[in-house]
Design a protein that fits this description.
By secondary structure, this protein is α/β, with parallel strands linked by helices. It contains 14 helices and eleven strands. Strands 1, 2, 3, 4, 5, 6, 7, 8, 9, 10 and 11 form an eleven-stranded mixed beta sheet that branches. Pseudouridine-5'-monophosphate (PSU) binds next to helix 3, helix 9 and helix 13. Keywords: Glycosidase, Hydrolase, Lyase, Manganese, Metal-binding, Signal.
């Protein structure tokens, strides 16, 4: 009953609805990365290119956002443009969903917000850039992204290029372990670090093949072990930045945030914008390349998971 009531808040785009009705694999995409993670017009262009990559790979993309008091599963070109262009888009995590839906404004969903909406829509795979995590200095600020709690309880597979080094990646992985969230890696043993390929920390399990990833994920959920799975894949070599450069810029951005007294939900967008400015926009090219690569990995996983669903009982 509760689920039915919740689902009555969903508005489906025609292609997303058709794919869902036909049992075709869908891939959810977040909108905070569009509204708050990249500048206009590169954000809208990238969002469209990512959708096209997913479609070419045989899955249906469903970008998720809040518009006019409804949760939109799949956006039209005009809706995407509005989310990418407007200066009045709320950043919507679990806490913010009721406020923005009840208020009827524009909302861009974070990893946590998108996971909630994807699960309501029955979408198992969600592609993003980087997940939120435990911030550096969290022992003083308590700043731990709600993304991690959502991963603990909402059953969606999240494909990412790891997490940015604006976070404490070691503590982020510890937190995920405590909450029983498996961290899978493909193409390398280590968890990725967004702009760079290697965080220096091992992922829990390396599974390069989409069928293996699907088997792992389906087994977890078949066992009633609700909650998400993180699948990390590194930014393509040609687009990766140097670790020394990004470390220095990250320290500078963190210092600027502290000096300006930035707190709460403003911290992550501030740091992202600061790093973008400090790299003279070069980080944007890296960001775009990694999201596209994540989309290819996510589409393959969605196809494999759809096959495993059609299989007889266990995978
Ligand atoms: N990390 C990135 N790019 C992003 C985000 C995180 O490299 O765009 C966004 C995602 O939407 C993520 C959110 O869910 O920031 C986390 O925000 P917070 O740290 O306030 O929970
Ligand atoms: Mn935070």
């Amino acid at each position: 009953m509760v689920a039915n009531l919740a689902r009555s808040w969903l508005t489906w785009s025609a292609p997303a609805a058709a794919a869902q009705a036909a049992g075709h694999p869908l891939v959810a995409l977040e909108s905070t990365i569009i509204a708050h993670g990249m500048p206009y017009p590169e954000n809208v262009r990238t969002a469209r290119e990512v959708e096209a990559l997913i479609r070419d790979a045989g899955a249906e993309p469903a970008t998720i956002a809040l518009i006019g008091g409804r949760i939109h599963i799949g956006l039209s070109d005009d809706e995407l443009e509005m989310i990418g262009r407007s200066d009045h888009v709320h950043k919507v995590s679990r806490r913010d969903l009721p406020a923005v839906l009840a208020g009827g404004g524009l909302g861009a969903t974070t990893v946590a917000g998108t996971m909630i909406c994807a699960a309501l829509a029955g979408i198992e795979v969600f592609v993003t850039g980087g997940i939120g995590g435990v911030h550096r200095g969290a022992q003083d600020t308590f700043d731990i992204s709600a993304d991690l709690q959502e991963l603990a309880k909402t059953s969606v597979a999240v494909i990412c290029a790891g997490a940015k080094s604006i976070l404490d990646i070691g503590l982020t992985l510890e937190y995920l372990e405590t909450h029983g969230v498996p961290v899978l890696s493909c193409e390398q043993d280590n968890f990725a670090a967004f702009y760079t390929r290697d965080s220096g920390f091992r992922a829990d399990f390396r599974l390069d093949d989409a069928a293996e990833q699907a088997r792992f994920i389906r087994t977890k959920w078949d066992l009633g072990l609700d909650g998400g799975v993180v699948l990390s894949t590194p930014v393509p070599e040609a687009a990766a930045m140097s670790a020394e450069e990004i470390d220095a810029l990250t320290r500078q951005a963190l210092g600027d945030a502290a000096a300006q007294g930035i707190t709460g939900k403003a911290v992550t967008p501030f740091l992202l914008a600061r790093i973008k400015a400090l790299t003279g926009g070069r980080s944007l090219a890296t960001n775009i390349a990694l999201v596209k690569h994540n989309a290819e990995v996510g589409a393959r996983l969605a196809l494999a998971l759809a096959r495993s669903k059609r299989g007889s009982g266990a995978v």
